[in-house]
Design a protein that fits this description.
By secondary structure, the chain is an alpha+beta fold. The protein has a domain at 136-366. Helices cover 23% and strands 16% of the residues. It has helices at 14-26, 37-48, 69-87, 89-93, 159-177, 180-183, 189-192, 200-209; strands at 140-141, 146-147, 231-233, 239-248, 254-268, 281-293, 307-316, 343-344, 365-366. The strands form two sheets. Strands 1, 2, 3, 4, 5, 6 and 7 form a seven-stranded mixed sheet that branches. A hairpin with a 5-residue loop joins strand 4 and strand 5 (254-268). The chain is elongated. Mean pLDDT is 79; it is low at 1-10, 28-32, 52-69, 80-103 and 356-361.
C-alpha cells in the first residue's frame, strides 16, 4: 500500500499507517464518542422546548386518552363471547334473552307455583342426557328436590320432634319413589315399616296389592315400581320437585302434606346402542300424600310411624289398562296416539293433583314429557 501524505507534506511509513488504522477501529483513549440516537433526540427536543424536563429512561407517564377505546373494548368483548359460544354453547345461549332452553335453575319450591314452567327449546333426550329438553333438566336430583320447611312446635310435638317427623316423612318419599331396588320391582319394605301397623285399611291394601293387584289395591297408589323384565332405568338419577307442609290435625296430631313430582327416564329392557334413544320415555308421577303423626296417648300406634290420611297421584307415560302392580311405559308401537284422551301437563304444579283413590282405567295424554 502506498504512503499517505501529512498536511505539511511529510510522509508516513507503512508501519505508522497500519497502526493508525488499527487504533481507529479499536477506539483510541480519549477519542470523542459519537452521541447515541436517544442523546441526539433529547438534545433536539431541549433545543425546541427549553422549559420541558427530559423523560427518565424507565419512567412511564400516564397514557393519553385515545379515541375509539370503546369500540376496541366492545370488539374484544364480542370476540370473547363468540369463543364462549363455540366452546360452551349451552350455558352462553342460556344467558341470551328469548332462549329458555338452559335457564337458571329454579329455587326450591316452598309454596304452590302460580304457573307451569315455560317451554324451552325442543331437544331430543339421549341415553347420556335423558332429561334433555324438559323442565326436569333444571330440577334437583332425588331427595334434594323435596323442600322441607323449618320446624316449629305443633300440637303434641316440640319443634325438635316436628323436625324428626318431617325428616321421616321425606324418608318415606325416598323409600317409596326413589329407592332403586323398589323402582326395579322390589317390595318397599323400608317404606312399609314407616306406616302405622295398626291402621287396618292401609294394611289390608298392602296385603293384597303385591299379591293380586286390582283397582282398589294397587301398589302404585303409594309406590313407584317398574317390571325389570320389561323396563330398564336410564341412568342413576330421578329428578324431583316438590315440598312438605304441615299443620295441626285431628286430636292435636301433626298433619304433614307432601306434594312431589318424580321424573323417571326409562327404556325397554335390554335396549342399547343404535336406536335405543328412540325408545327412551320419561314416566312422570306426581304424588300428594297426607300423613298424620298421631299422639300415642290418643291413637294406637307404634313409635316412629304415621297413619296415611289420603293419597292422590297424576301419572303420564306409565301405562293404561288393568293394574299390574307396575308402571308400564308405552314403548314403540304401544305409544299412545289417542288425541281424545284427557290432556295433562305433567310439569304444571300450579293445579291440584287430580287423581285419587282407585287408579281406575283412565289414561292421561301428556302435553310434554
Amino acid at each position: 500500500m502506498g504512503s499517505g501524505a501529512e498536511p505539511d507534506g511529510a510522509s508516513r511509513s507503512d508501519e505508522e499507517w497500519d497502526r493508525f488504522l488499527r487504533e481507529s477501529v479499536a477506539g483510541a483513549a480519549g477519542a470523542p464518542k459519537e452521541p447515541s440516537a436517544r442523546a441526539r433526540e433529547v438534545t433536539r427536543r431541549l433545543a425546541a422546548e427549553p422549559d420541558r424536563a427530559p423523560e427518565g429512561w424507565r419512567s412511564h407517564p400516564p397514557a393519553r386518552p385515545k379515541r375509539r377505546t370503546g369500540w376496541y373494548v366492545a370488539g374484544l368483548a364480542g370476540a370473547v363471547a363468540l369463543l364462549g359460544v363455540a366452546f360452551a354453547p349451552g350455558p352462553v345461549l342460556g344467558l341470551l334473552p328469548g332462549d329458555g332452553s338452559d335457564s337458571r335453575p329454579p329455587t326450591a319450591e316452598t309454596a304452590r307455583p302460580t304457573a307451569a314452567p315455560p317451554a324451552g327449546t325442543p331437544q331430543r333426550p339421549t341415553l347420556d342426557e335423558p332429561f334433555r329438553g324438559s323442565p326436569a333438566a333444571e330440577w334437583a336430583n332425588g331427595a334434594a328436590g323435596i323442600t322441607v320447611p323449618e320446624a316449629r312446635a305443633v300440637g303434641w310435638m316440640s319443634a325438635a320432634e316436628v323436625e324428626r317427623a318431617l325428616t321421616r316423612s321425606r324418608d318415606f318419599l325416598v323409600a317409596s319413589g326413589l329407592d332403586r331396588d323398589v323402582l326395579l320391582g322390589a317390595r318397599p319394605e323400608a317404606a312399609i315399616a314407616m306406616i302405622n301397623p295398626h291402621q287396618k285399611d292401609v294394611q289390608d291394601l298392602l296385603a293384597t296389592a303385591f299379591r293380586a293387584p286390582d283397582e282398589d289395591n294397587d301398589p302404585l297408589l303409594l309406590f313407584s315400581r317398574f317390571q325389570p323384565a320389561r323396563t330398564q332405568l336410564v341412568g342413576d338419577v330421578v329428578k324431583t320437585r316438590g315440598r312438605l307442609a304441615y299443620e295441626v290435625g285431628e286430636r292435636g296430631a301433626l298433619r304433614v302434606t307432601a306434594d312431589v313430582t318424580f321424573v323417571n327416564p326409562v327404556a325397554p329392557a335390554g335396549a342399547a346402542g343404535v336406536g335405543a334413544e328412540d325408545e327412551l320415555v320419561r314416566t312422570i308421577v306426581r304424588r300428594e300424600l297426607v300423613l298424620s303423626w298421631d299422639d300415642p296417648e290418643k291413637v294406637v300406634m307404634e313409635p316412629g310411624t304415621f297413619s296415611v290420611v289420603s293419597y292422590k297421584y297424576d301419572m303420564t307415560n306409565g301405562g293404561c289398562g288393568a293394574p299390574t302392580g307396575y308402571l308400564t311405559p308405552p314403548f314403540g308401537t304401544a305409544a299412545r296416539t289417542d288425541d281424545t284422551a284427557p290432556a295433562l301437563d305433567p310439569y304444571d304444579r300450579s293445579a291440584p293433583v287430580g287423581r285419587g283413590g282407585a287408579a281406575g282405567d283412565e289414561c292421561r295424554r301428556a302435553t310434554r314429557s
